[in-house]
């Protein structure tokens, strides 16, 4: 009997292990194909964090489906069917206390400190949006932003995720941005490099530099300057900044020394990218950088 019982226990253990392993594989496959996105992660307003709506909505922009494109630091990104615009819906969950935060907070002070930090980061990211629209619109491609709850202003829009599941949302209830669709600058530069097209390579470097200088001349700094290259894209042959959640006013940027410092630090990741992936273009980059620094002092 003992032998039979042991055999049954082993069989149950094997079945349990296979079941758990299968569930783990399924969950990982789901995460891989969906990029971890579910519609439940899109949260509606609980209260207005900042009273600001601005811009003009392109005609018929919501008379089409929007498909999941990816996620940024603060938003989920959906591409319009005509591929002309992106709809960015705010990721409020990024700034919410999670179950693990509650469980692993060893004191009330630790919990409150975490919540205070999340609230502060959310406040700063939301404050960046009006700054981006009012002062940096030519270099951000922003068309419309909705930071304050409205009633019956927008039609319902159809969203589709990576797994082709659809959900209809009433945008009146959500923080969102409409932005012109841009292609990553890194991809463009790499394409020109492979095609030995130094003229266009230089042209886009100059455009990127002018976008940086435009921001600095408006005395606006970027908290995410270390990822400036990743956040840059190309729309109609002009470089724009796709991520607009890290900007803030900084009057110190009007000084010559601080301007140069900001240019140097913002260009650093582009310089590293070129040195590592296309060293033959380093002299081209150096020339553009030199001219940009001279222009900033004129």
How would you describe the overall organization of this protein?
With 298 residues, the protein is an alpha+beta fold. 45% of the residues lie in helices and 19% in strands. It has two domains: 39-180; 183-296. Helix 4 packs antiparallel against helix 5. The longest helix has 33 residues, at 2-34. The model is unreliable at 26-34 (pLDDT under 50).
The helicity comes to 40-55%
Count structural domains.
2
Average pLDDT for all residues: 84
Strand content: 15-25%
Question: Quick summary of this structure?
Answer:
With 298 residues, this protein is of the alpha+beta class.
Keywords:
298 residues, eight-stranded mixed sheet, three-stranded antiparallel sheet, 2 domains
Topology summary:
Layout: H1 2-34, E1 53-55, E2 66-71, E3 75-80, E4 85-90, H2 99-103, H3 108-136, E5 142-146, E6 156-160, E7 166-170, E8 176-180, E9 183-184, H4 185-194, H5 198-217, E10 220-222, E11 232-235, E12 238-241, E13 247-249, H6 256-277, H7 282-296
Parallel strand pairs: 2-6
Antiparallel strand pairs: 1-5, 2-3, 3-4, 4-8, 5-8, 6-7, 9-11, 10-13, 11-12
Helix pairs in contact: 4-5, 5-6, 5-7, 6-7
């Amino acid at each position: 009997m003992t032998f039979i019982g042991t055999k049954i226990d082993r069989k149950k253990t094997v079945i349990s292990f296979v079941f758990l392993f299968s569930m783990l594989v399924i969950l990982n496959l789901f995460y891989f194909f969906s990029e971890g996105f579910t519609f439940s992660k899109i949260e509606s307003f609980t209260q207005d964090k900042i009273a600001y709506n601005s811009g003009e909505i392109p005609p018929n922009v919501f008379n089409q489906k929007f498909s999941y494109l990816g996620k940024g630091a603060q938003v989920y990104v959906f591409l319009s069917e005509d591929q002309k615009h992106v709809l960015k819906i705010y990721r409020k969950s990024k700034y919410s206390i999670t179950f693990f935060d509650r469980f692993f907070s060893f004191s009330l002070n630790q919990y409150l400190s975490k919540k205070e930090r999340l609230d502060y980061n959310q406040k700063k990211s939301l404050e960046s949006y009006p700054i981006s629209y009012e002062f940096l619109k030519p270099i951000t491609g922003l068309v419309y932003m909705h930071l304050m709850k409205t009633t019956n202003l927008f039609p319902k829009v159809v969203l589709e995720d990576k797994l082709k599941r659809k959900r209809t949302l009433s945008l009146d209830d959500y923080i969102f941005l409409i932005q012109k669709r841009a292609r990553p600058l890194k991809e463009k530069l790499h394409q020109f490099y492979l095609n030995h097209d130094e003229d266009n390579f230089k042209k886009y470097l100059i455009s990127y530099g002018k976008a940086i200088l435009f921001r600095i001349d408006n005395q606006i700094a970027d908290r995410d300057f270390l990822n400036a290259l990743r956040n840059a894209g190309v729309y109609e042959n002009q470089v724009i900044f796709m991520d607009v959640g890290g900007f803030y006013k900084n009057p110190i940027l009007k000084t010559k020394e601080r301007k140069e410092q900001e240019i140097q630090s913002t260009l650093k990741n582009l310089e590293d990218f070129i040195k590592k992936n296309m060293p033959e273009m380093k002299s081209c980059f150096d020339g553009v950088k030199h001219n940009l620094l001279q222009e900033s002092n004129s």
